[in-house]
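<backbone_tokenisation>
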Amino acid sequence: MKQLEVQIMGQSYLLGCPEGGEARLRQVASRVDEAMCKIREAGKVRSRDRIAVLAALNLAFDTPEPVAAPTPDLLTFAALPTDESNKFKQLLQRLDAALTSDDQLL
């Protein structure tokens, strides 16, 4: 397994990468960097951990068709049934509350 260095939000990460997967890993790291930088630039979220969680949620629910970039404090789950969408919104609110109350996060 190769090691590959990528930059995400200005920070270097050394990642394990299978042979032949370098281009794909760089592409994925670029998407993560872009998603995290958009959230940071919106100015409403400062915690790197919280930015990472929101970016992960946004990427996990990304659809193949182009959609407007979700705002960091309001994710839309248009492809989900209403009850599932509400569950995710409640989970996000609980996550926000937990991250906000933990003074250890930067």
